[in-house]
Design a protein that fits this description.
- This protein is of the alpha+beta class and about 375 residues long.
- It has two domains: about 180 residues, no CATH class; about 160 residues, no CATH class.
- It contains 13 helices and 14 strands.
- The strands form three sheets. Strands 1, 3, 4, 5, 6, 7, 8, 9, 11 and 12 form a ten-stranded mixed sheet that branches.
- Helix 9 packs parallel to helix 12.
Amino acid sequence: MAIPLAYNLRNLVVRKTTTLMTALGIALTVAVLLSILALVNGLKGALTASGDPLRIVVVRKGSTSELVSNFVRAAFQDLKFKPGMATGSDGQPLASLEMITIVNLARENDSDVNVNVRAMLPVGRELRPNVRIVQGRWFNPGQREMVVGRMLAVQHDSAQVGKKIHFGRGDWDIVGVMDGGGGATDSEIWADLNQISSDMQRVEILSSATLKATDAVAAQALINDINNDQRLDMSAQNEQAYYVAQTDSATPIRDVGIFVAIVMAVGSSFAAMNTMYAAVSRRAREIGTLRVLGFSRGSILISFFVESMLLSILGGVLGCLLALPLNGMSTQLGANFATLAFGFKVTPDAMIGGVVFAVVMGAIGGLFPARMASKKEILTALREV
């Protein structure tokens, strides 16, 4: 015969102070874990949202990112006429020669942040139809004009339309704000390639090329062709794969966060264990009475174990509620020498994982006290005060 669940719920309500304190300890552990996962998910989401399987990023072989790649302008002429390339509105191949460099963007607290500047040919905008202007206009080729990402405009007063950025050999006018749909583009600055390369005195040695294939089959064939062409000495991959590789910078953050959460979980498990041991000691007569009424040792073990699980579930839910306000909150993180702005993502999967994590803590903390409760002798239990 099983002990009714209402018995456990009543005991948790009666011991509301102890219940709340133990649940809060579990909740803080879950909140820390969810905060780290939300940070990592947000960073990965910002990078992977930038990828298009039909767009291909080409860098010098051996380069881990566009920023550290040395791409020769002359090689671009051989590259852009390879088979499988899509064509633009003017009938020319959709291929943009690009250069990535860094600019220091001032903040209100006087600490500068590094921001990626992507210099591109005019076709570069046509390659990325998902990026749209939400304020102002696009930059004009041959002019000292820049367009900033939406997240930069939100977080930096110096990145507003009408203001200037000192870069290279002069000041550049901010003429527009662009929205890349939550991708890395929202943390970039775009400008004209020829003007930027001239200012930086990098006319021949640039960073990368971005191409667009006609379809998925052509994209893979084009990637294989470029990678196998020893004369070009280039490495190609689609944008999705490229940005997934860039998310490796989030791995150490995730690992450290999980380690901290595990250390806290050990403490929370002991707290839950102490709570349940105290409950067993205080309720010795109840346990004896339950045995007299005919409840078996197994029923008592299950009842106390379930009570610990209910306590942990309460803590898990509270932890999710504590972490939920982080969802969508914007932050900045250094990635590949530049600052990437993105929003925290508290996903349903992460919240479910947080509750499961709490349940595991409750199971570890409740098993031994429940076992002790089930082993109490009837007469001994009834005599305890």
